[in-house]
Each structure stands twice: as structure tokens, then as C-alpha cells.
Amino acid sequence: MTTLSREELRGLFLFEHLSEAQLDWVYENAVIEEFAADSTVFNEGDAASCFYVLLSGVLRMTRTVGGNEVEMSRTDQRGAYCGATQFFVSDGSEQRYSASVHATTDLTFLTLPAAEFAQKFRSWFPMANHLLEGMYLGWRKSDIVVGSRRRLLALGELSAGLTHELNNPAAAAVRATASLRERVAGMRHKLALLAKKDIDPDLLEQLLDVQERLVKQVAAAPKLTAMQQSDLEDEVGDWLDDHNIGQAWDLSSIFVGAGLNAESLEHVLESVGETFLDGAVRWLAYALETEMLMGEIEDSTTRISALVGKAKEYSQVDRAPHQWIDVHEGLDSTLVMLGKKIGTGIKVVKEYDRSLPTLPAYAGELNQVWTNLIDNAIGAMNGSGTLTLRTGLSDECLRVEVVDTGSGIPEDVRQRIFEPFFTTKAVGEGTGLGLDISWRIVVDRHHGDLRIESEPGNTKFTVLLPLTEQAST
After folding, report:
1. Domain tally for the chain?
2. What does the pLDDT read at residue 470?
């Protein structure tokens, strides 16, 4: 090597503390390589054969993401290094360049053969090499293990939340079914009593007509306040007492719940007469309560079906990984899955722009983003506050905002919040991977952007997603 003196070589920060013998080896084995502007020094994925040290010029480092070239860094710092930067790892695997390097201007590199340099490095700095190798391999393994553990924990939390949500309507359906069985038996008994009294067939037909008419009113029964419910029950109870019908309090709650009042019972009296009124009223009460119980069962099973549907939307079962989606479906299904965590102390506000078009996306992966952002917002509010989900358009992108009223994120934390393994939570409570994963899904996978703004009482994460089809990853 004739174009770089030993003194100039020692002037590079990588080599300034080498011994004379070590410096001699670098001097004898290094090669000066020059690259013209706009040329490529090496390509991502090629076998990592050389360690490059920049002597002059400007380089740019890129990676291929989703078929697109993404610039990772650009530098003209003398002594900056690239290429086979993991040469110290001796795990037996073939090393490859993790990025491409291109010449922005004419470049001059000092180049060392990676395999030979690795052997010398291990003999020169055995302890440092063990530390570096251990740190690198440890980080790689922990990334895999912690990432897998986080996914399992998240799955467990979501499963627990879904189970909790399913339990309420399922239990309601079971209770309603048991009550329905009792009411049907009672209705059969009352019908038998009416028949034993030799009721006129025409009168029985009138009673059945009244029953059908009243039953149809159940679905349209108005929603009453507690005060309105109490006043109407008093009115109906008084009417029943006036006509010597026992258990007026129990019967009145059934009739009012079905949307009837004293005037409705007057029509029953006109149809069946005073003689059969007691039996007719009780039979009608059974019929109405039966209808209400069937409605409760229908509501409960519909709720269960809806929850299962939301779970399928969230997990994207039986769907293509990449598809045109309505982003609101993913947001809503995520809210359902996190329903137990949200609880009753957090108010959820949806400010959706329903006119937004569908967009091409990996729906299952975006649901991970919504889960991470909403889960963080819930945690920041400590059980009380307002969670706002807002959608809209920003230029050529669809915008999703997740806003919470928590204590906010300090500026020094915001600068590091998307770093892997960085977390502000207590030891054991967070892995620091949620926002890193979200960043990679939004930015790398979907070619979008993820931003944060925060002040006490108003922390906003903004996700920007392109509306046009992107190259597949």
C-alpha cells in the first residue's frame, strides 16, 4: 500500500491505539480501492468479504424494503466503516452484507479482507471479541425470544378479554333459556285452565288475537327511564288491583316491560270479559314474558356471533394477508378485543370519516399496530380518561390518530420511543418492542409514517398509510 503512510493510517480513529505490530499487519494487508461517483461499492445480500474504511468522498447506505430502495444513512466522515461489520462473529454461518453502499461522489476506501481480519482481531483482542460476539448473539437471541414471548402474552391478554366479553352474553342466554322453560310450562298450564272452564271458541279466538297483537308490540317497546318505568308500573298495578287480580306488582313489571299500559289492559277486558279476565291476564303475561325472553336470547346470541366475527376480523382468519380494507373494521375489532382492559373508566370516542376509501394493506399486521397504540394509550391513562380514535385524509394518505388524555411523554423519551427494547415501564412490565414493531409495520411494510405529539393531557400517535398500491414485500 503506497498511497497511505503509517502515520496517516494511525490517524484513523479505528487504528490509533493499535500496537506497532498490529498496525504493520493492517498496513501490509489493506488495499486502497476507488469508486467513481454513482457506482455501487457492494450490494445487500452479497457475501460479506471485505471491511471498508472511508478515506474520502460521500457514501450512502441503502436497504431494499418492499421492493423500494430506502436510504439508511449518508456520510463523508473520514474513518467511517461499513461492509463486513460483523466479522468478529464466529457462529459458523455465512455472513452477508446487510445493506448496499453507493458512491454519491468519487470514493476512496481502505479495504481489509474480512476473514483474515477476523482471525487477527480475535488474537489481538480476545476478551473484547468475546464480549462483542456475546453481546451480538445475545441481542439476536433475546430479540427472538422476547418477541415470541411478547406475542404470546399479547395473545393471552386478548384471549382473556374476548373470553370475558363472550361470558356475559353467554351467561345471559343460559339464564333466559332456563326462565323461558319455566314460562312455557306455566303458559301451557294456564291454557289448560282456560280450556277446563269451557271457554267459548269464539272468545278463545279473540284471546289469541289479542295475544298476537300484544306480542308484536314487544319489539317496539319504548326505552323508559327508571322514573317512567316506576310510574307506569304503579298505573298498571292499580288497574290490576281494581280488577281483583293478585300479584299485581309482578305482573305490572312484565306488562310495562312489554310496552303495555292500563289502556292496553282495558282492551283485553273488552275482549274476554270480567269472568275470564284473571286467567287471560296471567296467560298473556306468560306469553309476553316468553317473547321478551326469546328476544333476550336472540340479543345474546347475536352479541356472541358479533364478537366471534370481530375476533375473526382481528385475526384475519380465512382472509388473504394483503387486501383492500376498511381501516375502521380493524379499529373496531381491536376495541372489542381490548374491551376488558378499557373497562368502564375510559370513555371511547370515535371520530371516523366513513367516506374514506379502502386501502391496500396487510390487515392482520395493521391490527397489531392498533393493538400496540391503543394498549399504550389505555396504560397511560391508568383506568380513567378519554381515548379518541380519529380517521381522515392527509394529502395522498389515510390518517389514523390514537389520542389519550394521559400524563404525556417527555421530550427526551419521545426521541427514543421507537427504539427496540426501549421502555418507560417498570422492569417486567414492558419489553420495549411494541412501538418498534409498529414502526416497522407502518414504515417498512406499508411505506407509511408513524408520528407522535405529546403534552400532558394530550398524547397523539398519527399513522399515515398510502392509499395507492405499493410494491409487495
Report:
1. 3
2. 61
